[in-house]
User: What shape does this take?
Amino acid sequence: MTFSQSIKNCFSNYATFHGRASRSEYWWFALFNVLVYILASAIDTTINSSIFYTISVLVLFLPTISVSVRRLHDINKSGWFYLLFLIPIIGIIILIIWFVKRGTIGPNQFGDDPVLE
Assistant: This one.
């Protein structure tokens, strides 16, 4: 999956919490988030405001949770494990390790392999 395909897919499935997301879809969207946040922060710094960063957080909030849950489904984990991010440091490290991990090859309980589609 390419950068633009990932962004398009994540926004078209912004509230879809079923199915699976490949590693490339997740990580390209994560890169997009970082770039948007950097750009919004730079604009806010120049105009001495926080409106653009706030808007970007609100716009990207639901698609980010959605793709994260689908990424967890790809490794055959429940989406509720995303709440591990609430545990300082350890929870985030566990999630990063899982997000880097190769998804289940072939179908699992959450759907077909997104790499093979």
